[in-house]
Amino acid sequence: MAAIEMKNIVKQYGDGFPAVNDVSIDVADGEFMILVGPSGCGKSTLLRMIVGLEDITSGDMIIGGDRVNEKAPRDRNLAMVFQNYALYPHLTVYENIAFPLRLSKQHSDEEIDTKVREASRLLELDEHLDRKPGNLSGGQRQRVAMGRAIVRDAQAFLFDEPLSNLDAKLRGQMRTEISRLQRRLGITTVYVTHDQTEAMTLGDRVAVLKRGILQQLATPRELYDQPNNLFVAGFIGSPPMNFLPATVQGDQLELPFGKVTIPAEKASKVQGKDLVIAGIRPEYFDDAAVVDSARLAQGATFRATVDVTEWLGNEAYAYIPFEAPADVREQLSALEKELEMEAMHPQLVVNLDAASRIREGEEADIFVDARKMHLFDPSSQENLTVGL
Ligand SMILES: Nc1ncnc2c1ncn2[C@@H]1O[C@H](COP(=O)(O)OP(=O)(O)OP(=O)(O)O)[C@@H](O)[C@H]1O
Ligand SMILES: [Mg+2]
Predict the structure, then answer these.
(1) What does DSSP say about strands 58-63 and 4-12: parallel, antiparallel, or unpaired?
(2) ABC transporter domain: from which residue to which, for each copy (predicted)?
(3) Does ligand 1 have an atom closer than 6 angstroms to the CB of 17?
(4) Do residues 222 and 109 share a domain?
């Protein structure tokens, strides 16, 4: 096991395009690090530079204290689990797991047997050892691929979207399984995904990338509660954070649905700004009818017509359309494009308490908690109220 330090890593492909642009990430020994971001942001490129499958244009890649920029993949002793697990169809599960050990020719048959059985026990593959990969489920195949990585005593595990071709249910199961296994083995892991749920549930820390540039490196909770900028705010969370145009007057914010008084610390950060973008997660809203009076006093209540409601059993969402000026609309739709979200007409997504009785097409009183709102600079896209 080893720590992985990436220092000012740059990757320019032949055409000069900077796929990874001055990225520094330190992965602690035993840590589970996630690289997440939309398609083309440079996740796979970065991972391939760690393993040695891609040259590094500039910067230092340090694994276990050694600079490995010039080292061949086989000398880095890392185990990569690809999206397609590349198992050998004609070999049994046992032989698939044993494969890297046989290839290295450094182990006796007894040693190989011990290691394969140890990995198989850990991965609960004992009853499948004599089967062929073609007869296994996607999740079982995934475990065989991991077994092959485990027997090598690699310094770190690297995963590139290992769950993307599984169905939703199996993906959920495998997510838990990978998480459990990583904790048990305590092995340094770098895991690439474009799925923010995977990022949030698996990672000790998450590195959010956009167009080759590191946007924020933080724990899942910190990313969710204190996003650095509009991109991270919109990328993390599902349904995503609502973004609303807001004009500032002292400690008052004028939002499309009315005026809200914001806490003094937040107000002081946006003084002198005309227009800001207010970021409000769906759960900062609620049906005012089910909010207690102490909480009502912490925010504002407005009246709105609910367009659509969605009831999911344990929770419910209400959709409320709103008007936005043309320039703000343009900016929001550009952001949606970056986030690969469906282009949508401006609407609020409100997470309703299960006790709410709001119905579609009806007017209702909606509460918004002003303390939790983030305020973003529309031109720099920075979060002006980070940490507040
Ligand atoms: N061999 C290559 N030659 C030139 N450009 C490349 C090459 N491989 C990748 N790129 C470019 O580098 C950028 C990053 O690609 P990369 O594969 O790292 O993205 P990614 O974040 O893994 O995306 P995805 O989620 O789609 O897998 C992209 O813009 C891509 O077009
Ligand atoms: Mg990729």
Answers:
(1) antiparallel
(2) 4-236
(3) yes
(4) yes
Q: What range defines the domain where residue 120 resides?
A: 4-230
For ligand 1, say whether the CB of 82 is within 6 Å of any of its atoms. Answer: no
- Measured CA to CA in angstroms, residue 320 lies from 84, 283, 355 at distances of 42, 14, 19
Query: Among the atoms of ligand 1, which is closest to the Cα of residue 161?
Result: 27
Ligand 1 atom closest to the CA of 11, numbered from 1: 12
**Ligand 1 within 6 A of CB of 41:** yes
Taking CA atoms only, the protein residue closest to ligand 1 atom 24 is 39
What band does 344 get if pLDDT is binned at 50, 70 and 90?
Answer: low
Closest ligand to 16 CA?
A: 1
Shared domain for 185 and 92, answered yes or no, is yes
pLDDT tens string 274-289? 889 999 999 999 999 9
Distance of CA 95 to the CA centre of its chain: 35
Q: What is the pLDDT of residues 31-49, one digit of tens each?
A: 999 999 999 999 999 999 9
For residue range 54-79, what is the model confidence (pLDDT) as tens digits? Answer: 999 999 999 999 999 999 998 999 98
The CATH number covering residue 215 comes to 3.40.50.300
What ligand 1 atom has the least distance to the C-alpha of 42? 18
**Is the beta carbon of 43 within 6 A of some atom in ligand 1?**
yes
pTM for this entry: 0.90
Residues 135 and 146 both lie in one domain:
yes
Cα torsion angle, 348, 351, 353, 358, sign: positive
CA distance 90 to 96: 9
